[in-house]
């Protein structure tokens, strides 16, 4: 039975500063480094055959720390922008609280938490889903079907899109799902490539 491990990158500087990050290439904090080390400790006994990550520094840095921690720095790594965070467009770099003062709490909540409303110049969660899932089906699912164990280190919304797909969640259900930084989520597949168990 194949296993898929999902990890959201460790805390980034803009997570700490409550800014919209999106595609901006921001590194992780000291706390984020510790979260990545803890994720590695949690995964230490697992067999991991290949790792995937986005092209953004915070995810790549988190992955490198995890692989060092588990003693497997040389496994194959695939980086692809399909796994990037959702783009927040013109909101990127803005403080979330200040943006709410400018546009109103309700508008900012809609931009952040609706499924198909697009922030100015950015992507909706639906847009993110529509790039993550075809990539997963083409590049990652075939490996799982061959019983390879896969680690994906990515972002809150790219992982949310994938979880929506794996768990057959509705748009309303996925918007209620929070994904903590640096905490591995494990999906175990049966021989028919159905998720048989989820562990966190």
TrEMBL record:
Active site residues per record: 9, 85
Name of the protein this chain belongs to: 2,3-bisphosphoglycerate-dependent phosphoglycerate mutase
Keywords: Gluconeogenesis, Glycolysis, Isomerase
Pathway: Carbohydrate degradation; glycolysis; pyruvate from D-glyceraldehyde 3-phosphate: step 3/5
Reactions the enzyme catalyzes: (2R)-2-phosphoglycerate = (2R)-3-phosphoglycerate
GO biological process assignments: gluconeogenesis; glycolytic process
Residue numbers binding substrate: 8-15, 21-22, 58, 85-88, 96, 112-113, 156-157
EC number in record: 5.4.2.11
Gene expressing this chain: gpmA
UniProt xrefs under Pfam families: His_Phos_1
Summary of the function given for this chain in its UniProt record: Catalyzes the interconversion of 2-phosphoglycerate and 3-phosphoglycerate.
One of the record's GO molecular function terms: phosphoglycerate mutase activity
Enzyme class, spelled out: isomerase
Organism: Chryseobacterium pennae
Positions of the record's site feature: Transition state stabilizer: 155
PANTHER family per UniProt: PHOSPHOGLYCERATE MUTASE
Family affiliation: Belongs to the phosphoglycerate mutase family. BPG-dependent PGAM subfamily.
